[in-house]
Amino acid sequence: MLIQKGLCEICSPKQWKTISSDKLCDSGYPVYGANGVIGYYSEFNHRDRTLLIACRGTCGSLNICEPFSYVNGNAMALDRLSPDVDLSYLYYFLLHRGFSDVITGTAQPQIVRQSLEKVMVRYPELERQREISGLLDTVGGLALSRRRQLEKLDELVKARFVELFGDPAANPMNWNRAPLSACLKSIDSGRSFVCGAAPRTGNRPAVLKLSAVTSGSYRPEENKAMLDEGQFVEAAEVHGGDLLFSRKNTPELVGMCAYVYDTPGRLMMPDLIFRLNTTAQCCKMFLWKLINHDLFRGCIQAIATGSAKSMSNISKERLLNLTVILPPIELQEKFAAFAEQTDRTKALIQKSLDRLETLKKSLMQAYFS
Question: Where residue 277 sits, what CATH number does that domain have?
């Protein structure tokens, strides 16, 4: 039997006083903002784990604060939770439900207590709640483990790069340096197309979004369907073995690169993406990992134009003049073989993670819809 009550009947949503950033410390009690811990403070306002809803900024995201912590004003704390409601169950229920219908304001979206009075919560007896949340915790824990494995493998490749080549910006191993123009046969530009907002269905022509590249891994599912299929341009189509470079993005993400191991057909580059075609003395996988390496990102961002508050852009001319290290091709290929093998392992872990995420969504659909 399911019980249904209003959220404000089973808890008391409350915003606490915001601590200004200049009063935050490096140690003390953790301070939770809209997206987790933002610093530390000498006092706490919560003795117990408490469910938090971001009520400003990224409205509707959820978090759980640890015992003895301070909840800042950007998060709504669901205080005094009813003893017949499990905290983790409520977290998953609200995560599935979402808060799109209670967010107010457009320029500055927010969630206020009065809006939360409209939120209804359905829940079974406490033991069943704990069974459900325990299962979802297990699936979520496995997914978190997979994500950490992926992060560790990324760190391994970056560490191997430095082991073989040193810091690519400082060049302590005194490798030959060359402008990128000496490493490229050509740079292909994408095109500007009229697209819808939704991804394609089937094998219809589509255009990649910037998000297909900016993670550093190729994501062909990040695309937009073309409105006019007759405008398909074969010269802009993406192929396996391509090295794609995002020439325009936020200052943090501009210039991120992705190597295409394989790809579905009839996907095209937009005008915000370059295809880098390397010469025989430069291995694409080496160049991919060089461009994306944390130690080299400053060099990439230095050739971008645009203000900090706008989209940054890297012109073809500036990119061709970028100075890069150029170790012997044999060493580049040795590193490439290591990186490719690591990526095969990552692909298997990613498939496992995708299955876990699908399972979690299906379980939440079954339990909470």
Answer: 3.90.220.20
- Predicted confidence band at 131 (pLDDT cuts at 50, 70, 90)? very high
Confirm whether 171 is domain-assigned: no
Span 242-262, average pLDDT = 94
Mention every residue, 6+ apart, whose C-beta is less than 8 A from residue 366.
none
Residue at 242 is within a domain:
yes
Whether the full predicted model's pTM is greater than 0.70, yes or no, is: yes
| 3-class DSSP assignment, residue 277 | strand
Instruction: With both helix axes pointing from N to C terminus, report the angle between 284-292 and 329-368 in degrees, rounded to the nearest 10.
Output: 60
Cβ atoms of 24 and 40 within 8 Å: the answer is: yes
Cα–Cα distance, 171 to 161 (Å, whole number): 12
Residue 86 is given by DSSP the state: -
**DSSP-assigned states of every residue in 100-167:** TTT-B-SSS-B--HHHHTT-EEEE--HHHHHHHHHHHHHHHHHHHHHHHHHHHHHHHHHHHHHHHH--
Domain with 144 in it? 125-153+329-369
How far apart CA 135 and CA 334 sit, in angstroms, is 44
Asked whether 66 and 117 are in contact (CB, 8 A), the reply is no
The answer on 293 and 276 residing in a single domain is: yes
Cα–Cα distances in angstroms (integers) from residue 57 to residues 40, 53, 79, 284, 310, in the given order: 20, 11, 21, 39, 19
Q: Beta-carbon neighbour count of residue 207 at 10 Å?
A: 28
Cα(343)–Cα(341) distance, rounded to whole angstroms? Answer: 5
Residue 109 pLDDT: 87
- How far apart are alpha carbons 242 and 278 in whole angstroms? 10
Is 230 among the domain residues? Answer: yes
- 3-state secondary structure (DSSP) of residue 77: strand
Please state the domain count of the chain: 3
For residue 359, give the DSSP letter.
Answer: H
Weakest-pLDDT range from 161-175, 192-206, 212-226, 329-343? 192-206
The distance of Cα 8 from the centroid of its chain, to the nearest Å, equals 33
Mean pLDDT for 78-99 is 96
State both tokens at 339: 């990186």
Split at pLDDT 50, 70, 90, the class of 321 is: very high
